[in-house]
Structure formats: structure tokens, C-alpha cells
Amino acid sequence: MHEPETGPDLVRAFEDGTLHTCSFSHTEHLYVVWALVRSHGTLGGLARFEHGIKTVTARAGTPEKYHATVTHALSIAVGERVAAAPDASWAEFVAANVDLATWPSPLLETLYGPDLLTDAAARSGFVLPVGNRQ
Fold first, then answer.
1. Which residues of the chain have pLDDT under 50?
2. 8 Å CB contact between 13 and 19
3. Among 11, 91, 105, 112, which is disulfide-ready with 116 (CB 3.0 to 4.6 Å)?
């Protein structure tokens, strides 16, 4: 079983596109988002994460793995939680945010429901949560 990696080497490999996607776990995804949001703010972290995940999936020959709604919603949720506890360590963040650290994410499933998260429109572009859609 793959042990999740955390730390600056993971973020660097993600940002420079050299990360091996076959072993990029949800915990590692979350760590990179958390690190980028802490370093660049919510919107800056989101922009860097979105660019990085598109680069990594394209280089791996699997651009279809990119999911816009999950990327945006997860990044914004992480940003909100980091703002509420800006000095929390990674371990403290994970312990306090099990709904984000678990995959599939209970938070995203509550906000979007299983049908919307599998929808092609949600994959290719950001869509608002179910309760906010008209």
C-alpha cells in the first residue's frame, strides 16, 4: 500500500509537473491544496492547484481525470477552514476536518450529491452546489 507523502518535496513535484499520478492519493491532493492555500491564499492556492492538476494529468495521459467542480469546491472549503484556524499544523487540520480528509468527501457528497459529481458538466467546469442551483 502507498504511504501518503507530505511536505515541500510533494508540493514542488506537483507544481513542476513531475509528480507520478498513479500514486497521488486523496491525502496527498488535500495536502497540496492545504499547502498552496496557506502560502497563496484561497484563490491563489486554487489557481495554482488547478494549473498543477491539469498539468500532472495531461503529462500522465489522463486529462479526463481532472474534475473542475471537485477542484474548486475542495480548494474553497480548505481555504475557509485554513482561515478559521491559520496556525493549525497539517495533523491538526486533518484531525479537525475529517469531512475533507475522507474520500469520497462527505462534505462534497452533501453539497453536490452523487449524480452531480459524476456529471460531465461538473467535471469540465465548476458548478454551484445543489442547494444553490436554480
1. 1
2. yes
3. 112
Q: Do 93 and 38 touch, CB atoms closer than 8 A? A: no
Helix segments in 18-105, DSSP class H? 26-59, 68-84, 90-96, 98-101
Q: Work out the number of other CB atoms within 10 angstroms of the CB of residue 7.
A: 10
Contacts of the segment 93-97: beta carbons below 8 A, 24+ positions apart? 93/34, 94/27, 94/30
Q: Position of cell 474520500?
A: 103
* Percent share of the chain, pLDDT over 90: 72
DSSP assigned state of 102? S
Are the CB atoms for 121 and 133 separated by under 8 Å?
Answer: no
Q: What pLDDT shows up at residue 5?
A: 82
pLDDT of residue 1: 39
